[in-house]
Amino acid sequence: MRKGHFPLSDLPAWCIFNGIALAGVRVADTESRGLGLVAERDLKDENDELPALLTVPKELILSAVGVEEYAKENKDFRQLLDAAGHQVETTDPLWSIIELISASLVR
Questions:
Q1: % of the chain at pLDDT higher than 70
Q2: β-sheet bridge partners, residue 22
């Protein structure tokens, strides 16, 4: 296994370690839709109010705004960001899930 890559089965432990609460969902690699969160129970309740499926601490949300704010504080990071062209690509499945979660929370 390459450094920085973890099996999907490690994500629940990583979530606990980082203060992410998964409520009634599990991480799965589905055949038809790829990686994602799958509900463990029916999500409808009597009030038609959907419960929060996960809670992510603000400091774990990686966003363009957060990156730019950090780059303002750290000149070395700014140089690295400028040299990298502000783009990072990864094929790590855990990172893919984190990106999906972040994107869904930023709306």
A1: 72
A2: 54
In three-state secondary structure terms, 22 is strand
Please give the structure tokens belonging to residue 48: 């038609």
Report d(CA 88, CA 41) in Å as an integer.
36
Per-residue model confidence (pLDDT) at position 17: 92
Domain ranges of the chain: 8-60+90-106
Give the contacts of 72 (CB within 8 A, at least 6 positions apart). 78
Cβ neighbors of 92 (< 8 A, separation 6 or more) are: 4, 5, 6
**Does position 89 have pLDDT exceeding 80, yes or no?**
no
Start-to-end C-alpha separation, the chain: 34
Q: How far is CA 65 from the centre of its chain?
A: 16
